[in-house]
Design brief:
There is one protein chain. 79% of the residues lie in helices and 0% in strands. The chain is mainly α and 228 residues long. It has one domain. The longest helix is centred in the N-terminal third of the chain and has 34 residues. The protein starts with 7 loop residues before the first helix and ends in a 6-residue tail after the last helix.
């Protein structure tokens, strides 16, 4: 079966357009994350709690911002008609929006993840928090992928909002579940990076399920021959 051809020049322009529109706002989110990391680095009870809470809020905000402004707001402003006037297919549009959203989200996401790991390793915080932090970031990645897949496949603003809120709110129950797994919770207080079997399985599942959600959304769009 012949694979569909992508209009790479136009796709690149659409990706650059999304990045240029949102880079200033994303810079502010990263600035907020830096403040949170500074609080974490103080390694005190109140600053650790405040920094952790602020960091989660920033990361959730980045994920929701990337999806809402690139897809939901554009639909409300009916910019799809302009895109349809370009030499693009539904698959081109999907590829551009998927890549644009991933760039918009992953650039600050990776910076914050690396910053968090650096703060943990080079401050008085126990290195055991590295695995715990990766699992929390893994949940944010999975929640983002699910929300993005729903937003790409479903045009209902209500369902898109529900998917974003529901997936991100689940971070609290997820943190509570981690606290109930001794191999993970007990390792957070030690000054060593401990990879337990439950941690490896959970993190692997998060990464694979996130990719799978995007793949299912991509399969759905590959079958479309028109924008509607």
């Amino acid at each position: 079966m012949k694979l569909p051809e992508l209009n790479l020049p136009v796709i690149k322009l659409l990706i650059v357009k999304d990045w240029q529109l949102f880079q200033k706002q994303l810079a502010l989110f990263v600035l907020g994350a830096l403040v949170a990391l500074c609080l974490l680095g103080m390694a005190r009870g109140w600053s650790f709690y405040l920094g952790s809470l602020m960091l989660i809020i920033v990361m959730v905000s980045i994920a929701c911002f990337a999806i809402a402004n690139s897809l939901i707001v554009e639909r409300k402003e009916q910019t799809l008609a302009f895109v349809m006037s370009l030499p693009v297919s539904p698959l081109d549009f999907y590829a551009a929006k998927l890549a644009g959203n991933l760039v918009t989200f992953l650039v600050p996401f990776v910076l914050v993840v690396l910053g968090t790991l650096t703060v943990i390793v080079f401050t008085a915080l126990p290195n055991g928090l590295v695995i715990y932090s990766l699992l929390v970031f893994g949940h944010i990645w999975l929640a983002y992928c699910v929300s993005l897949s729903v937003a790409m496949a479903v045009e209902s603003e209500g369902w898109n909002t529900f998917a974003m809120i529901a997936s991100m709110v689940m971070i609290n129950p997820f943190i509570m579940i981690l606290a109930q797994i001794p191999a993970i919770s007990e390792a957070t207080s030690v000054d060593a990076i401990v990879w337990s079997v439950p941690a490896v399985l959970i993190l692997s599942a998060q990464l694979l399920l996130g990719v799978a959600a995007l793949a299912v959304s991509g399969w759905f769009h590959c079958r479309k021959t028109a924008f509607y």
